[in-house]
């Protein structure tokens, strides 16, 4: 019985972190202390009184120097896509350069090409040498901890294809460093105030398998999509799903074709749209529409409108083309009439943007305005105007 009782013992382990006034993590349970520069990038990493790493950044946030061997003033210098060695505070020759399929690495006086095979999250799973021999193989835990299967090489690029920072065991995402060990960022999201309902330190809204590539299937982000944009899309999708309005996106993801989602930016006066030639939904995650019926449609509502166009193009392309060429006075064309009188009403009702018996609009017009977030109908100007 004594043995049984022991198995119910729970050990409570308290792990604590410290932060500076800007929300940067200054100490972690691994015993390291970190100081930051004025743009919230790491400056120095210490273990006790020993300096382990030093960093230098350009004012625009680009990493310039990474001193990993402070005793010899040695490390790496980042210049464009190339990396150079530093020794005794001086440039000490070429180290490596990245290209779309991997890296070119210097080894002594020769140069070797290393090819990276990545998964759907961009994580490097296999490194091949020039004779296509596997020289490194990795698996990853869901939040990015690496589990090397075969012996490692000098490759520093792993989870999500980001560079490892050795002493802190973090991945460098450019704007911030991520700790796969603790599943959190070292710094706050620079746009945290826009996403106050998520933690400023959250990674992929707590769902790394889904949200780096939010669908992982047929709707993909256009090249160069920012993390902010991906988060905004993830919020919109969650909002649609929470209100039973995510059906059209789910249908679109069953398609054989690939569709892209691209940020049009807030200064684009054209507003969100579906471009069938490019198979791309252009979406402004802060773009609401004030309709001619004085209804405020959230960016999420607008997104679902465009998803309906994409879905019709996917399922009934002939009808799609016929309808968009059929002029209907107040609705521009028959395809717009179909979406506005159909799914637009359903979506707005489900999201609580119109009441039963109301309609969003009876035309294809509206005044674009900037909302406080992707799921909000609140005008950003109203918030600013309040004392
Ligand atoms: Zn439309």
Task: Describe the structure using short key phrases.
binds zinc ion; 27 strands; alpha+beta; 12-stranded antiparallel β-sheet; 4-stranded antiparallel β-sheet; 387 residues; elongated
Q: What is the compact description of this entry?
A:
By secondary structure, the protein is an alpha+beta fold.
Describe the protein:
With 387 residues, this protein is α+β, with helices and mostly antiparallel strands. Helices cover 20% and strands 32% of the residues. The protein has helices spanning 2-6, 208-211, 227-242, 247-252, 299-315, 317-324, 334-341, 343-350, 380-385, and strands at residues 18-19, 25-27, 32-36, 42-47, 50-57, 63-69, 74-79, 82-87, 90-99, 102-107, 110-118, 124-128, 134-140, 146-148, 163-165, 170-172, 177-179, 184-185, 219-221, 259-263, 273-275, 280-283, 287-290, 296-297, 327-328, 332-333, 367-370. Strand 3 and strand 4 (42-47) form a beta hairpin. The longest helix has 17 residues, at 299-315. The N and C termini lie far apart (66 Å). Mean pLDDT is 84; it is low at 1-10 and 210-217.
The residue-averaged pLDDT reads 84
Number of helices: 9
Tell me the radius of gyration. Answer: 25 Å
What is the overall shape?
A: elongated
Low-confidence stretches: 1-10, 210-217
Bound molecules: zinc ion
Total strands: 27
Distance between the termini: 66 Å
Assign a percent range to the helix content.
10-25%
